[in-house]
Amino acid sequence: MADMLNIGTAATNTFRRAIEVTSHNVANVGTEGYSRQRADIISSAPSNTGYGFLGAGSRVSSIDRVYADYIQTQLVDAYSLKSRYDEQLSLSKQVEGVVASNDKGLQTFMQNLFDSFQNLSNNPTSSTSRDQVLSEANNMEAMLLNMSTVLGDTQEQVNGQIKNMTDEINKNLTTIQAINNQVANSLSNGGQPPNDLLDQREKAIKELGQYMDIKTFRQEDGRIDIHTGNGRYPLISDNTLTTLNADLTDYKNENRIEVYMQIGGQKVEVSDNIKGGQLGGVLDFRNNLLDRSMNEMGVALNGLVASTNWQHYQGYDQNGNPGQDFFTPLSTNAIQSAKNTGPEDGTNIQVSFNPVYDPTAPVQGTNPPYDSAAVPPAADAQPPFYGDKQTYLGQAMSAIGEFEPREYKLQFSTASNGFEIKDNKTGDPVLDSAGNPVLITLGAPDNGFEDVEGLRFDVTNVAAAPADGDTFIVKPHQAMLEDFSTSINSGEEIATRGQSPVDTGVAGLADETPTPASVGDNVNIANMASLQSKKVLYSDASGNASETLLGGFSKMATNVGMYVRGTEIQLTSQENVFDQVNARRESYSGVNLDEEAANLLRFQQAYQASAQIIQTSQSLFQSLLGAVRL
Q: Quick check: 37 pLDDT over 80?
């Protein structure tokens, strides 16, 4: 009877524990990340009675967590990618609204400008038509100022998001490491797994995956090590926590935040290693849409400014003066790295559009740089012959076709006494027409000048050579977006008139000194209007331009649209993947109330039956006592 009583008592304890575990499951049915628990009930060790082994009832050996590591890993990965594309889409739609709108887009303003050129060509003596040209140019300037401001605000928004997301990542890493320590302590002396702590850790890991892609590695002591998504950099390893740091790049004036880690005592940029989560989405958006859009827009704007200006130089205004800058031409400086040790700060490294260049007799000075005999030429100098004007215009148009939507890094080499030019994004050297890396030497043979992808790189004002390895960056096409402005101040300055007499190129006919055509001539403004349909951008290997100015903007807008559509497709796909994996996780580890209700009923009945065993044991004992008393 004593054994019967012990069996009954153990059984009630067993099923009471089972009811408690089931109740805990029911209570956490709405708890995010909770994994269903299960009481593992086993038989107690039997006793050898001589006539056989007599069972001793049951007991709870452990409380197990219903969990599949591979499902949780899939869930974190799917959640990370879903979060990435969700953030990418939100940001990219902002840019799409700014640069790709058909109603208020840049193409509309440019079309209005060309329409005003055509209208003035039809009425070259009309002051109203001249004022309309100036008005449309100013409208475009105002529109670009607003667009530049909005895109600049977007850059600041991205910087702020990188900082905030980095802070959230560090908070989650700190939480995970703290739980790691608690788990390791619980298991260190052969203890049972702390199920609820493990759930809290998985929840923190999932939240970490919301911000960046990660790889996890389970250790024998119960800890989880965490690395960046490509496995390259440890965030938590051997109980050592390495946080992320959002900071300005070495090019401080660039005002660009990147993500860094301290690895081996060195500050290492790790932005390119983060591909998932919201932070990965922000970084991808900036690198592959925002920067690209601004550079492509800058190429089209530089093409508009350069082609309009150089065509404008061909003509004469209402007062017979040679055409000057219609728009303010490109002129920007480099930004130095904070790591530089040499004396140059970048202000003497200038990039402009100055296509009339002979390496054997370099031309310097203001636009238009016509007179190659004067070094530098006099301001507003005109070429001695009309044919020279046409030659220089052809050179300008050819140079415009070489524009590439990229940023440049200049690295000084003491050995070559010059600057190596690289793509700032990829680090690859920029190649010249012969396929050789571009080098601008301070002395011979370049004498501080070099034409690179249609742009004039000028380092002649660098008085003292930088230190070996000093680097500088320059963003000429983004600079045009920021600095775009109209140079002419009145309609009278518009060079509508052409050249008279015009050199026909007939053999034996002398080239003439440039003189203005008569009042009412519209040759030059008609040529300016025709720029709308002329292919001037993105030359192929044969030197033939493939895009018009409007086509350049259309290409940029198309790329924005493709990025947005591609992101939408990826987001829809990843949402489906996440939903499927989450459903699998809930099916395997989640709490099913119907199942738990059935368990409660089953364990309740078992508990009642166990209590009946105790009652029966007591009844038998009382019967025995009664028999003894007789």
A: yes
- SS3 for 94? helix
The answer to whether residues 107 and 553 touch, using CB atoms and an 8 Å cutoff, is: yes
Task: Give pLDDT tens digits for 171-201.
Answer: 999 999 999 999 999 998 778 899 999 999 9
Mean pLDDT estimate for the chain:
88
* Alpha carbon separation from 318 to 42, 77, 121, 134 (Å, rounded): 104, 68, 13, 14
Contacts of 81 (CB under 8 A, 6+ apart): 213, 276, 570, 574, 577, 578
Please give the pLDDT value at position 383. Answer: 60
Strand runs labelled E in 314-444? 331-333, 335-336, 350-352, 408-413, 418-423, 439-441
| Lookup: tokens for 617 | 């044991």
* Cα dihedral sign, 517-520-523-525: positive
Please provide residue 52's backbone torsions phi and psi, each rounded to the nearest 5 degrees. 140, 170
Distance CA 377, CA 382 (A): 9
CB 177 within 8 A of CB 241: yes
Structure token pair of residue 496: 């509508």
User: What does the alpha-carbon distance between residue 441 and residue 259 come to, in Å, rounded to a whole number?
Assistant: 34
Is residue 367's pLDDT more than 50? Answer: no
CA 205 to chain centroid, in Å, comes to 23
Helix or strand holding residue 545 (H, E): strand 545-548
Provide DSSP, 222-253: S-EEEEETTS-SEEEETTEE---EEEE-SSGG
The phi, psi pair for 543, rounded to 5°, reads: 85, 10
Taken in order 597, 603, 608, 609, is the CA torsion positive or negative? Answer: positive
Query: CA–CA separation, 87 vs 570, rounded Å?
Result: 12
From 438, 359, 348, select the one nearest 402 (Cα to Cα): 438
Structure tokens at 515: 């003189």
User: What φ, ψ does residue 192 adopt, rounded to 5°?
Assistant: -80, 150
Select from 202, 197, 172 the least CA-distant residue to 182. Answer: 197
Spatial separation of the C-alpha atoms in residues 142 and 35, rounded to whole Å = 58
State the pLDDT at residue 48.
73
What radius of gyration do the chain's Cα atoms show?
A: 38
pTM, to two decimals: 0.88
